[in-house]
Amino acid sequence: RNVNLSTGSHNSFSYSLDPHSQVAPDQSREIHAVVHMFGAPGRDVIYRWSMTQNLTAEQQLNSGIRYFDIRISRESSSGKVCFIHGLYGADVIPCLEDIKKFLDNHPKEVVILDFNHLYEMGTEHHSSLLHTITEIFGSKLCPYLNMECLTLEMMWGSELQVIILYHNEIVSDNPFFWPGSSIGSPYVNTSDIPQLLSFLDKHKKENDAKERFFCWQGVLTPSAQTIISHFAKSLKEVLAGKLAPFFVTWVKNGKSVNCKHGIFMMDFVEMADFIPSVIDLNY
């Protein structure tokens, strides 16, 4: 099987966000100021608009998700590295250990963990996290290699199950981590469905680069205006739920996606038959 199109979840660990936490460092100064002013009600708005997944990592894995979009920050008071999106979520390490358990029980499954937004971390924090990741996954880690060699058969034969993309130059001399340049993931900042789909169509024509992963983001981003107009609602109600059937229809036409290592990613992956639709493209 030369083509391997994978299912991905956007902001995969946002189900773990703590509505009572501090505002995370991925947010603008304006958002920090709003929460400072309004306190808990301000945090509640951020929570409803930052939550992009309902399913836990284990539920996502059991449903068929194989690409995880990961944003992390060191939490200053505890020193722990946590998932973030608007607010702080779970400690990263136990969640990685859960993924390892799943892989132990499913030796033919392969996951891609993409650490692409990393905040409040110095060199020593990166080194410590990379060391822990290496300890957790051990011989399952697939070393950085030429994409032409990357097939499921090769990974099965070598008992490799985890590809880690880590978007920081610290991995440049570590053979077990893939640099951020190993993935293309074009993003358009829009809350408009037609605009998103035409953006995806444009990149469908351009992305025949065989030497990296390519991620199709079926994701709408709320503007401040969107949030203010739907203050009491959520990302899922206003944007993600409406987009899902349109994106999945676009995915089903993905036979024309000229990409050997493609990933389709969206919010609330349980919606609109997204996962089976992507899996079917492989056959």
Descriptive account of the structure:
Helices cover 39% and strands 18% of the residues. It has helices at 29-38, 40-50, 57-63, 92-105, 123-137, 152-158, 193-206, 224-229, 235-252, 274-280, and strands at 6-9, 67-74, 81-85, 87-91, 111-119, 162-166, 178-179, 183-184, 213-218, 262-266. Strands 1, 2, 3, 4, 5, 6, 7, 8, 9 and 10 form a 10-stranded mixed β-sheet that branches. The N and C termini lie close together (9 Å). The mean pLDDT is 93.
Index terms:
283 residues; ten-stranded mixed sheet; 10 helices; alpha/beta
Mean pLDDT score: 93
Radius of gyration: 19 Å
- Structural class, judged by helices and strands? alpha/beta
List the uncertain runs.
Answer: none
The number of distinct helices, counting runs of at least 4 residues, comes to: 10
Helix content: 25-40%
Strand content: 15-25%
Largest sheet: 10 strands, mixed
Question: How is this fold's topology laid out?
Answer:
Elements: E1 6-9, H1 29-38, H2 40-50, H3 57-63, E2 67-74, E3 81-85, E4 87-91, H4 92-105, E5 111-119, H5 123-137, H6 152-158, E6 162-166, E7 178-179, E8 183-184, H7 193-206, E9 213-218, H8 224-229, H9 235-252, E10 262-266, H10 274-280
Parallel strand pairs: 1-2, 1-10, 2-5, 5-6, 6-7, 8-9, 9-10
Antiparallel strand pairs: 2-3, 3-4
Helix pairs in contact: 1-2, 4-5, 9-10
